[in-house]
Every structure is written in structure tokens, then in C-alpha cells.
Amino acid sequence: MRDLREQLLGIIEKNSRIDLKELAVILGVEEVDVVNELAAMESEGIICGYHTLIDWDKTSLDKISALIEVRVTPQRGQGFDNIAERVYKYPEVNAVYLISGGFDLLVTLEGRNLKEISSFVSEKLSALDGVLSTATHFILKKYKDHGTILAKKNEDTREKITP
């Protein structure tokens, strides 16, 4: 069953929209086994959600992403968990990671423009008790996200001329 789970997770991580019948065929099991295994992993919290990867640069919507490094003072008995929870509760925040290195947390968020993100960092994030400093990095272009290449090169469609 563990091998089935690992194979199933590997496939749906790349394509969560794959048809259940097709999954069953690929894995060599019955469709009901796939359905039951997915339901079990959802209830166990192994599968936490299903998401769509969107290249926002190809839409008419204004959206910008940023990575914010945050240095904090850990709390006795709680470590970084309480401050991480306060940060991830903001709707602007997409993800919060505990990281190694010179900073403690890495926060990803989205906004409509640079000013909106800068305001969030200065007025909300930096103002939290326990936050010592932040460093904001705006994402200017995404080349690959969640294993998907977004910046594909345009292939030369001209006919090659050889002597």
C-alpha cells in the first residue's frame, strides 16, 4: 500500500486533474482503490489541497509576488510557531517557511503592486512583536514554478538553409 501511495502522490503532484480511471490504469489497480487511497490521504492530512498553477503575467490582472525574509525572536516553549501562525493568518500571505541561515522565516505573498506589498511589510509584518527585521525580494519573472517551466523559449520556425 505504501508503494501505491508513493506512486499516486508522484502522479497527482504533477497533474491533480488526472482522471481517476486513468490513474487506476497507470497504477494497475482498481479505480475504487485509487478513490479510497486518495480519501484516506486527504483525511490523514497527507494531501492538503489541490491547486492550479497560473502564469499571471499572461493575464490582464495586476499581480506581483514577493519573498520576505523575516528575522524573529523565538518565544520560550513555542519557538517560531506562534509568530509563524500570526503571519500565515494574513490573507495576503501565501506561504510561511521556517528556514536556515541568516533569517528565520521566509514569507511569500502577493499584491496588486509594489506599494501594496511594501505597505503590508512595513505596517503589518514588521510591526509584529518579535519581528527583528525583514528583507523584501520582489519576483520579477518566474522561469519555473512547482516543477512547471513557465518561460519557454520560442522555437525558431524558419526553414533552415544549408549550402
Automatic annotation (TrEMBL):
GO cellular component terms, semicolon-separated: cytosol
Annotated GO biological process = response to amino acid
Q: Which Pfam families match?
A: AsnC_trans_reg
Among the GO molecular function terms of this UniProt record, one is: sequence-specific DNA binding
Alphabetical list of InterPro entries matching this protein: Dimeric_a/b-barrel, Tscrpt_reg_AsnC-like, Tscrpt_reg_AsnC/Lrp_C, WH-like_DNA-bd_sf, WH_DNA-bd_sf
Transcription regulator AsnC/Lrp ligand binding domain boundaries: 68-141
SMART domains for the chain: HTH_ASNC (SM00344)
Q: Which SUPFAM superfamilies match?
A: Dimeric alpha+beta barrel, Winged helix' DNA-binding domain
| Protein name from the UniProt record | Lrp/AsnC family transcriptional regulator
